[in-house]
């Protein structure tokens, strides 16, 4: 699991009945010296407890009506009443077995203090797994053909015993990998480098890191790599979406507002020339050359009079003056529905 668990739903615990202040008496005055607690970084599975001090500096009884808190925070000790001049401690407990990433805990204590009817507290920190991947649990590397781009992830051991990285497994077509020891048994750096003349396109590859950890014997790291040719498009495909015929008829500007933009680039170009055509009769194409001479913008707009209910499947064919990439095909998809 590599998704940070942040804000969760607030639970409510009712702890007492409303007690009104006697007429003419000084009201209660709730004071909390500290309203924020940051537990820092802890390893998943740890149990964290903290107490907030709640004082009554008023002249009447301070009553706690209820408390709301972010789950899985739990209240372990909560006073129902605090006499004038007295103080009590509110204890909270957080179990982290099911958490990972930043935790933003919010607490609201409902009081009979007319000046502070709701006291707000925070209970925050970060939960890391026993073996942590930093700064994130995935690689993202994009390169042009001929570029040797790389990216790194640190493997950090938070377990008491030393960690050995025993084996790294992944296909070798798109990139190579290298492991560096930063601190024996505690920290390692895993680096991947995209093959500068490897297969073009985008790839999603799973890297298996086998370790000596009793809790995490295998780390699964996803590598998202992209190797672009000298001439490439962005995006790599055009999706015109799903449109209703009734909406098109009711809103004449809908097709203009849903037009798609396709960029065509030539890396290092200055006199790039492009022409575009399509095999879809319901699609209009308009091209505009960039000022630097290395790119074109192609706007694809549906023609209302040509539209019929059914799927849209076809291509935009881009012809260029680059001798190595004379033709680039971009798939087009979408659908028109009756309702």
Summarize the structure.
This protein is mostly beta strands. 3% of the residues lie in helices and 57% in strands.
Please describe what this structure looks like.
The chain has 339 residues and is mainly beta. It has two helices and 26 strands. It has helices at 245-250, 254-257, and strands spanning 10-14, 30-31, 36-43, 47-56, 62-70, 74-77, 81-82, 87-95, 101-111, 118-128, 131-134, 138-144, 150-157, 165-169, 175-183, 187-194, 201-211, 218-228, 231-234, 238-244, 260-266, 274-278, 283-289, 295-302, 310-320, 327-337. Strands 1, 3, 5, 7, 9 and 10 form a six-stranded mixed sheet that branches. Strands 2-4-8-6 form a four-stranded antiparallel sheet, with no helix packed on it.
Quick tags:
339 residues, mainly beta, six-stranded mixed sheet, four-stranded antiparallel sheet, flat, disordered N terminus
Task: Summarize the helices and strands and which ones pair or pack.
Layout: E1 10-14, E2 30-31, E3 36-43, E4 47-56, E5 62-70, E6 74-77, E7 81-82, E8 87-95, E9 101-111, E10 118-128, E11 131-134, E12 138-144, E13 150-157, E14 165-169, E15 175-183, E16 187-194, E17 201-211, E18 218-228, E19 231-234, E20 238-244, H1 245-250, H2 254-257, E21 260-266, E22 274-278, E23 283-289, E24 295-302, E25 310-320, E26 327-337
Largest sheet: number of strands, sense, barrel closure: 6 strands, mixed
Name the helicity range: under 10%
**N-to-C SSE series?**
EEEEEEEEEEEEEEEEEEEEHHEEEEEE
Q: Structural class given helices, strands, pairing?
A: mainly beta
**Global geometry:** flat
User: How much is the radius of gyration in Å?
Assistant: 31 Å
Distance from N terminus to C terminus (CA atoms, Å) equals 40 Å
Poorly predicted runs of 5 or more residues: 1-10, 12-21
Count of DSSP strands: 26
Beta-strand level of the residues, as a percent range? Answer: over 45%
Count of helical stretches: 2
What's the overall average pLDDT, rounded? 92
